[in-house]
Amino acid sequence: MRGAEYICKMRDASILDVATQLDVPIRKTTIATCPACGVSRPERGGKLTPNGASGVGTREDRGWSCFACHATGDQLDYISLTLCGRRLRDCSASQVAEVRQWCHRYLGLAGEREPRSTARGVPSEAEPRYADPQQLRAMWRTTAPVTAVPEVSRYLESRGIDPVVVAARQLARAITPSTALCTGARLGRRTWLDTGHLLVLPLVDARGRCRSLLGRSVSTASNENAPPKSLGLSGSKRAGLVLCDAVGRYLLEHDPVTSCVGEIVCILEGEIDYLTASCDARTDEFAHFGVGAGAWTEQHAERIPLHAHLWIATDQDPTGDRYAAEIINTLPGRSDLIVRRWSAPSNVEAAQ
C-alpha cells in the first residue's frame, strides 16, 4: 500500500476509536488526554473533543483540538504525538516507520503482505505487539522498592496498604530519577516521572509472562488538570494482561489439573483493591488478580484449578457489573467452580 493511501484511510478513521486503540481514556464523546501538552480535564468543558462530534470543523475534518493548549491536528498527528512525542512532520525516519506500522495494524493491512513462513512452509502466527521485553526488564530492574521512595510509601499508607508488604512480595516498585524508563512510559511529552506515576505494577499474560507495566499516580491532589490515575505504556498492547501476586502467577504458569495452590481465586477491579487484598494476611493463600477492561480472558480462566472457589470482587456499580459479567462469560462449562460476588477486599471474614 502506498503511503498516501494509508494516510487517507487514517484520516477517515474515528478519532475516538484511534484514541481507544492507543489506550487513551475516553469520557463519553471526549478524549481525556491531550497528546501535545499531556493534560486532562474533567468531562465538563472537555479536554480534547472530536471535531465531528463537537461541531468544530466540517464533517470531513475528524481531527482533534485541545481546549487547554489549543493544539490541533488529525489522526496521524495524534498517533505520532502519543507514540513518539512529536508531530509526524517532525518525526525521524524510524519514528515515521513506527507510526506507519501502527496504522497498518489498525487498518488490518498486515494480511496484504506475504505471511512469514516457518521452516516447514507454514505461515507463522503474528505475535501481539507487547512492550519491548528488554526495555521492560531494564525498567523493572532499575526501579526501587516502594519503601525507598517516601512519596510512594506515604501514598500507599494513605490508602491503607502496607508498603513493607508490597515491597516484600514484589507486588509493585517505585520509579526514581535513575530508572531506565520504557519508551512508552509517558503521557504526551511528559514521562511518568514528570506526571507523578511513580508506582509501577507488572502486567502479565495468561501464562504468567510479564508483558507490560502499569503506572499509578501517587498524587492525592484533585484538580482539573490532573492526569489519569493509571497509565499503561503508550503504543503497546495492554488487553489480555492482568495484575497478579505470586500465587496467581504460579497458577498461570502451571497445569490447573495438577496445581496444588489456588483453592480460592479472587479477581479484583483496579490496582488499589488488588494491592489491598494481596497484602491482607487473612488471604495469604489466595490467588489474587487485578483486572480492568479487556484484561481477563478465557486463557486466564483455563488456569483456574478444578473445584476452586472463584470470588469476583469488582465494584458494585455498572462498570463493575460489566467486568463481572465479562469474567463469568469466560467460564463456560466450568460447573466445578464455586463462583460468588465478593463485595469488597475488606470483607474477607464475611465472605468466609
Could you characterize the architecture of this molecule?
- The protein is an alpha+beta fold.
- It is built from 14 helices and 16 strands.
- The strands form five sheets. It has a five-stranded mixed β-sheet with strand order 12-14-13-15-16, with helices on both faces. Strands 6-9-10-11 form a four-stranded antiparallel β-sheet, covered by helices on one side.
- Residues 41-47, 51-61, 109-128 and 347-352 have low confidence and may be disordered.
Instruction: Give the radius of gyration.
Output: 21 Å
Per DSSP, the total helix count is 14
Q: Shape from CA axes?
A: globular
Mean pLDDT over the residues = 79
Structural class: alpha+beta
The gist of it:
The protein is of the alpha+beta class and about 350 residues long.
Main attributes of the structure:
single chain; 352 residues; alpha+beta; DNA primase DNAg catalytic core, N-terminal domain; Dna Topoisomerase Vi A Subunit, Chain: A, domain 2; 4-stranded antiparallel beta sheet; 14 helices; globular
